[in-house]
Design goal:
Elements: H1 20-41, H2 58-67, H3 69-88, H4 99-161, H5 165-175, H6 184-198, E1 202-209, E2 212-222, H7 233-241, E3 245-246, H8 252-255, E4 262-267, E5 273-281, H9 289-308, H10 315-332, E6 336-342, H11 345-355, E7 364-370, E8 373-381, H12 385-394, H13 396-399, E9 403-408, H14 414-418
Antiparallel strand pairs: 1-2, 1-5, 3-4, 4-5, 6-8, 6-9, 7-8
Length: 423
């Protein structure tokens, strides 16, 4: 197979032997043609022994230059044999056999043939070396392409699975620990955190005014400033739905007009939209559903964190967190579980004190009242009922004195949580 980089060049396979029959056939035919032409052009002196250029010399000369020493030498012998026959039959006028003329024919054929063989051997070695280098280059190119493909897949795998959502939420809380509300400085820290986890290269957070983006209020930005069109289809879809909108989810007519890849409303758990996260560019491998979902979830949790804080004992914070987890379940099918602990007031207070040091980083706990009796509610985000039971087994010593009820996020009436009152 001809290599792409050798297009237009004849590639000779040095491992394929050249057929000798073609060379011998051409040598005999060439010699016959030259002798016939000599006899036709000058019948009384076809070999030009009496003067003029010895044209029969062309046959061994051309045979030697084309095929080598042996072919030229044989052609010269054929010329001399025919010369001898012509003199004997008196086709050629001569007083005797012209030995110097014959030696000259043989010498010219030998020199031309040796010249061709010498350069043929040199070319053969060069062709072999070139073929070897071409094969090595092809192997290197193939290995390079395989390595590049493997690196791209590894990069995608690392980008898509290097951070878990639980880890992201935990780090988000520590990053935004010193909350300052929805201020530009807090939003700048939020977008920088999201950019690190979601592989964003150019994005900004733009303010909202009268259900439209305020292009003059860029609250935070990464990757350099860029203009935003308020009529961008991605922006309009995000504001209309209140959810993540991406360029691949809108119709073809709108795709020809947009500039943004994705837009995410920054809404708290109550549904109020405070700003809009506009994504202008990101790596191709990162522009896929799982990563966009990760960005949307982290942005929502970040807004809630800046909006409501992290007071573990606050029933209001617990309700806000439940609303967020319930929305995550409804939109993205992210599991969550609630644990309800009831018992005597003394046991509940004792368990509450012990659980405060055992609750995991992103779990949330509050104490509410149920008919004047205290009840502990524990919210376990990103945890299904199987893992929740495993957690309960590890805390079995603490929970032994109270009644436990495990409820999946999809099985509870949201109004039950929304109506909680602090004890």
């Amino acid at each position: 197979m001809k290599k792409p980089w050798l297009e237009g060049i004849e590639v000779i396979n040095v491992n394929t032997p050249v057929s000798a029959w073609g060379g011998w056939f051409e040598t005999f035919v060439l010699t016959a043609i030259v002798i016939a032409a000599s006899f036709i052009t000058q019948q009384h002196d076809p070999f030009r022994l009496n003067g003029g250029f010895p044209w029969p010399l062309l046959a061994p000369l051309l045979a030697g230059l084309r095929y080598g020493f042996v072919y030229g030498f044989v052609s010269a012998l054929l010329i001399l044999a025919i010369l001898g026959v012509a003199i004997n039959q008196q086709w050629q006028i001569a007083t005797g056999f012209p030995l110097p003329w014959a030696i000259g024919i043989v010498v010219v054929a030998m020199v031309a043939g040796e010249f061709r063989d010498m350069w043929g051997r040199r070319l053969h070695r060069l062709e072999g070396a070139n073929q070897y280098r071409a094969e090595r280059l092809e192997e290197f190119t193939r290995s390079y392409q395989l390595l590049r493909l493997s690196h791209d897949r590894l990069e995608q795998t690392v980008a898509n699975s290097g951070f878990s959502l639980r880890e992201g939420i935990m780090n988000l809380q520590s990053t935004l620990d010193a909350i300052d509300g929805l201020s530009p400085s807090s939003l700048q820290r939020l977008i920088e955190f999201i950019a690190e986890y979601g592989a964003l290269t150019q994005a900004c957070i733009v303010g909202i005014a009268a259900d439209r983006i305020d292009t003059d209020r860029i609250l935070a930005c990464i990757g350099g400033n860029f203009s935003i069109n308020g009529d961008d289809p991605v922006v309009m879809r995000a504001l209309e739905s209140g959810e993540l909108a991406a360029v691949n989810l809108i119709n073809e007519y709108a795709m020809d007009q947009d500039q943004l890849l994705a837009a995410i409303p920054l809404a708290d758990s109550t549904g109020e939209i405070h700003a809009l996260l506009a994504v202008r560019s990101m790596p191709f491998f990162a522009f896929q559903e799982n990563n966009l979902r990760l960005i949307a979830v982290l942005a929502a949790h970040g807004v809630d964190h800046l909006r409501f804080g992290t007071a573990n004992s606050s029933v209001g914070r617990f309700i806000a967190s439940f609303e967020r987890v319930h929305q995550d379940f409804s939109r993205f099918k992210l599991d969550a579980t609630l644990l309800r602990l009831s018992g005597t007031p003394g046991d509940i207070l004792n368990v509450y004190g012990q659980l405060r040091s055992s609750v995991r980083a992103i779990d949330l706990m509050c104490m509410a009242k149920n008919k004047e009796n205290p009840v502990i509610w524990l919210l376990l985000p990103l945890t299904d009922t199987v893992n929740a039971r495993a957690w309960m087994q590890r805390a079995d010593d603490i929970l032994a004195s109270v009644t436990s009820e495990l409820i999946a996020i999809g099985d509870i009436d949201p109004q039950t949580i929304r109506s909680l009152e602090p004890h």
